Amino acid sequence: MSSFEYCMRRNGNLLSPYEMKSLREAIRNYRKEGYKAGDANVSAVEDILRDLGEERRDIISQIRDALPDGMDIDSAIKKNSGGRWTTE
Fold first, then answer.
1. What's 70's DSSP letter?
2. In this structure, which long-range contacts are made by residues 41-44, counting pairs with CB atoms below 8 Å and at least 24 apart in sequence?
3. Region 26-54: what's the mean pLDDT?
4. Cα 75 to Cα 81: distance, rounded to the nearest angstrom
5. How far is the C-alpha of 30 from the C-alpha of 47, rounded, in Å?
6. Which residues are within 8 A (CB) of 50 and not within 5 positions of it... i.e. 6 or more apart?
């Protein structure tokens, strides 16, 4: 069993079926491009981490845009109550 398969058996339950399918497709694509198995696995995971980072930055941007003037994001996260911004 490859180290990737071992990792997926131990941690694959943390991924949705869609994420698992996307990861396997990315690995297959890297393999078709000539990457060795280990390099394909690493590259596919790095792609997912990069995409998650981009999504995180987008979410933070949307939160900042929705904040009242003068409220920083850390305060907003602590003060968000039931989907409404509070000033307490």
1. T
2. 41/2, 41/3, 41/4
3. 94
4. 12
5. 11
6. none
